[in-house]
Amino acid sequence: MTRSRLGWAWRGALASLALDVLAGCGAHVLPTFHSESERLRVARERHDAGDCAEAILLLKTYVLNAVGTAQVDEGIYLLGDCYLRTKEWTLAAGEFERLLRDYPESDSSAAASFALGSALYGQAGKADFDQEYTVKALEQWRAYLRDHPGDWRNAEAERKVMAARTRLATKLLRTGNLYLKLKLWEPGRVYFQKIVDEYGDTSVDPEARFGLALSEAGRGRHREAIDQLKQIEERYTGQEIAARAAQNRKRLERKSRS
Q1: pLDDT of 112-154, one tens digit each?
Q2: CA 114 to CA 142: how far, in whole Å?
Q3: How many CA atoms lie less than 13 Å away from 43 in the CB half-sphere?
Q4: Per-residue confidence (pLDDT) for residue 119, from 0 to 100
Q5: pLDDT band at 34 (very low <50, low <70, confident <90, very high)
Q6: pTM for the whole thing?
Q7: Domain closes at, from 125, 143, 167
Q8: Dihedrals φ, ψ of 69, to 5°?
Q9: Which of 167, 188, 216 is the C-terminal boundary of a domain?
Q10: What does the DSSP assignment read for the chain?
Q11: pLDDT band at residue 2, thresholds of 50, 70 and 90?
Q12: Do both 147 and 106 map to the same domain?
């Protein structure tokens, strides 16, 4: 094939590819709407079907055009929920905050208040990291429970409150355990005591009590440590933490007798 014919062949292939791309894009072109209420209806259908990408495009336009209309608050909520589903936490939080600020009497306010907690919680790192957003999420879910008693999401919010509190307690526990490894007994004791005092209803409590006993032992307060270990054995009979407590208690009792 000559260079000229080769060039034309490449041009033809590129043109064909361009047409295919345009055809593919055309399949996702949004329809033309005769009213904003129609746009919201289709956006709602896309949202309910789980097509958040298309729903977001529709809702962003709707919210922009429908300021001051009766259903704009619903559009804002649906947009926030789509961002929540796609884990765009910051954008979701922004929409829910906007709804609660500008439309506090909206029928969607309870749902937005609950969802704002989820958007904030999504921005928090694991227990090893700073827990600023876990604290914010916890405060938001508590505000939701206070402002919307009897809402159908109350039970789930209670579970999320416990999950957030457990994460905060876990952060304290890991810090306390780090101090134990460094043999900094008093700072470690402070962290373990805070868990027992403020998060005693979480699953972290047994380990905090165990750490508290080890901190006392490290400080030379063997009798206090032995008493605390006995309490763990009695409280958590049959559990692994009780076996560890018994092992350490016996070691301290031998050491006290020598």
Answers
A1: 999 999 999 999 988 778 899 999 999 999 999 999 999 999 9
A2: 9
A3: 28
A4: 98
A5: confident
A6: 0.83
A7: 167
A8: -85, 165
A9: 167
A10: --HHHHHHHHHHHHHHHHHHHHHHHHTTPPPP-SSHHHHHHHHHHHHHTT-HHHHHHHHHHHHHH-TTSTTHHHHHHHHHHHHHHTT-HHHHHHHHHHHHHH-TT-TTHHHHHHHHHHHHHHT---TTS--HHHHHHHHHHHHHHHHSTT-TTHHHHHHHHHHHHHHHHHHHHHHHHHHHHTT-HHHHHHHHHHHHHHSTTSTTHHHHHHHHHHHHHHTT-HHHHHHHHHHHHHHTTTSHHHHHHHHHHHHHHHHHH-
A11: very low
A12: yes
For residue 31, the model assigns a pLDDT of 75
- Count of domains forming the chain: 2
Q: Which domain holds residue 61?
A: 33-167
Same domain, 38 and 161: yes
Q: How large is the average pLDDT for residues 96-108? A: 97
Statement to judge: residues 127 and 202 lie in one domain: no
The model's pLDDT over 176-196, given as tens digits with 9 standing for 90+, comes to 999 999 999 999 999 999 999
Q: What CATH code is carried by the domain that includes residue 37?
A: 1.25.40.10
206 and 191 inside one domain: yes
